[in-house]
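Review form for a predicted model. The reviewer records the input and the model, then writes brief findings.
Reviewer: anonymous (R2)
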Amino acid sequence: MSKSKKEISLGKRIFRILSGFELAVVCLSLLFLLTFFGTIEQPWFGLWTTIHKYFDYESLFVIPTRGDGKAIFLPLPGAYWVIVVLSVNMFLGGIIRARKGWKKAGTLVSHFAILFLLVGSAVSSVYKEEGQMRILQGEKSDYAQKLFKYDIEVFSYDETGNREKPAIIRSEHIKPLGSKDTLDVSFEKFDFTLQIDKYLPYSELALDSPTSSPPKGEEVIDGFFLTEVEKNVQTEERNTPGCYVTVKGKDGETIQRLVLWGGNPYPVSFSHEGKRYGVTYLMEVWPMPFMVELHKTFGENHPGTEIPRWFQSNITKIDGSQREEYEIVMNEPARHGGFTLYQSGFTKAAEGEVPSSTFAIVNNPSDKWPEYALWASAIGLLFHFLVMLVRFAGGSSRPKKTGPAETTQPLKIPTS
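Model under review:
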């Protein structure tokens, strides 16, 4: 080993590895594989499930699988963490290690823009919030419901029958439960407790009748029971959880047994010591800093199906005294204050009914970052191209230097 190699410190070796072109090639190759297998897997497991499997920050490793669950490739690192490594590589190699100077300003700007794009994707993965808002034509709404987050709300009714401020059991406390686990919850404002059990992440609420009798040993409450169903992989938002709840008094006696299902919009009520209470199990309420008024919704389905082919909503966004008109069409959302409203569905009304629109609402702090990064990268590459063009034109216009004329010696062929 040469002396120069012996003198290279461990820190410099690590820096060379992290900033090296080889690491960038490995990261880009892994991202290609993850995108490729995710695209293959998406028809079997649905878009939402596949994105969260491959690109969520909680996924350290993923195993690409087929529809029957069999692996089709070796485990791969999660795309989120591959992007983290690629971002470090881009920062060290494309910015810190790169040559500086005004002639290299274009490439530096482009490298910084790509790094900004990678950071934006990480911010979106961690901080993005999603929900949906359903509005009847002619009505207004100032709240949405967060997708995949079902909360249990417990509230009392006042003397006029109106709901009082509820106590909320958040979804992150309920989701870890299985069908055999229980969760005991007490409240400061109520003199009773709840015991949550038999949690089913994918369920349906069934009516006990001669045509739909419950399985053997299944509990029936007020004529209803929960049945476990297979996960809907094509439309994740249609998966609905359910659970059973026991209301207990101070001494542990059972006051009421309830069955809660996420698809039931109405509260389940019970009485305790002369007062009436209600319990709901619905998607988490997400207050909006503005109000949406739906004026008209219309669209068309694909022939012979209930799948929307095209739809549009004419709305007014009300923010204090400001009113703005929008036309929201498929793939043409409305943006306001960091919130983006997409048209995700509409409901045709039968005779005598009112049509409605469903909006997917996304609050993404890095929503516009990809656009800014692309503009910056384009400007940087254009500047670099102009610099190279000027250098090339300047070099070709200079007179070429000619050296002294070469003398040639006659070739002598020996004769025999």
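Findings: The CA atoms of residues 57 and 80 lie 5 Å apart.
Further findings: The radius of gyration is 32 Å.
Recommendation: see findings above.
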